[in-house]
Design brief:
Blueprint (H helix, E strand, L loop, with lengths): L3 H15 L3 E5 L6 H7 L2 E9 L2 E6 L3 E6 L5 E6 L11 E7 L2 E6 L3 E5 L1 H9 L11 H8 L6 H4 L11 H11 L12 H21 L7 H4 L28 E5 L2 E5 L11
Helix pairs in contact: 1-7, 6-7
């Protein structure tokens, strides 16, 4: 499932490619056909990301709300005379002069108004890539007895963090993933928040999650691929201390962490 850095990258790219154009919207698959007619032929004014959600703002205050989920994927193509044939079950096609954008397999694809968009946003926690307030995140975390590893996946607490980011952020902060939120000190949280913002900005810049430094990787970050981008996620051994990486289900997802580098909290 794309994490927040990816949706923000998609929003930037689609805004640059399609905003300002009159867009023909169709549903080759058919499931979005009736709603597509409500925005087809209108000008796309903006594309916005919030956590893992995308909002395509069309003139007339009509918005296409997209959540890619685990299987959703966009395909953007250029053409000269005739748009390419849709590949697979395309839920939504946005057709602009000389560009086409196809969407396959999203969890959510619907036309909404401003009130529904606001309702979606109200259910999300602060977005680190959109200037979200760290104090609001800390306030929710300190009220919970759930482990910090589970809280980081809760989109109502902080928007945009997924399974890879939470593993790497907790590792970089040196935090035991089982630490209850209420036991996290302000100093620990401030350190974690700086890491959250930094790693998500790096992911946005490079279009992929990279949590190691260029020095650790031994190469420029834009050349780092696969699990070499991570300290613990998907790896058998910790890149820092060489201890075996522990794998444990927390918050309904498999978490990777290093017991040697991530110490339990000893203060209240």
């Amino acid at each position: 499932m794309p994490e927040g850095h990816k949706t923000h990258r998609i929003a930037i790219d689609h805004r640059e490619a399609f905003a300002g154009d009159l867009i023909k919207v169709t549903s080759p698959q058919g499931r979005f056909r009736a709603q597509a007619r409500r925005v087809s032929g209108r000008r796309l004014e903006n594309v916005e990301a919030a956590g893992k959600h995308l909002f395509y703002h069309f003139e007339g205050e009509r918005i296409v709300h997209v959540h890619l989920g685990r299987y959703g994927k966009f395909r953007e193509q250029k053409f000269q005379k005739k748009p390419p044939t849709p590949i697979g079950a395309v839920r939504m096609r946005m057709l602009a002069p000389e560009r086409v954008l196809d969407l396959n397999g999203p969890t959510t694809c619907r036309v909404i108004d401003a009130a529904v968009r606001e309702d979606v946003l109200q259910k999300l926690g602060p977005d680190p890539l959109a200037g979200g307030k760290s104090s609001d995140v800390f306030e929710k975390i300190r009220q919970s007895s759930k482990p910090i590893a589970a809280l980081l996946l809760d989109q109502s607490i902080v928007a945009g963090i997924g399974n890879i980011f939470r593993a790497e952020m907790l590792f970089s902060a040196g935090l035991d993933p089982a630490t209850p939120g209420r036991d996290l000190s302000k100093a620990d949280f401030n350190r974690l928040w700086k890491i959250i913002v930094r790693q998500m900005k790096v992911g946005l810049k490079y279009g992929k999650i990279i949590t190691v430094t260029a020095k650790e990787a031994g190469m420029p970050l834009d050349r780092v691929e696969g699990n070499d981008r991570f300290h613990v996620y998907g790896n058998e051994y910790c890149r820092k201390c060489a201890c075996e990486v522990t794998k444990e289900d927390i918050g309904g997802r498999r978490l990777y962490f290093c017991k040697g580098c991530q110490s339990p909290v000893t203060h209240q």
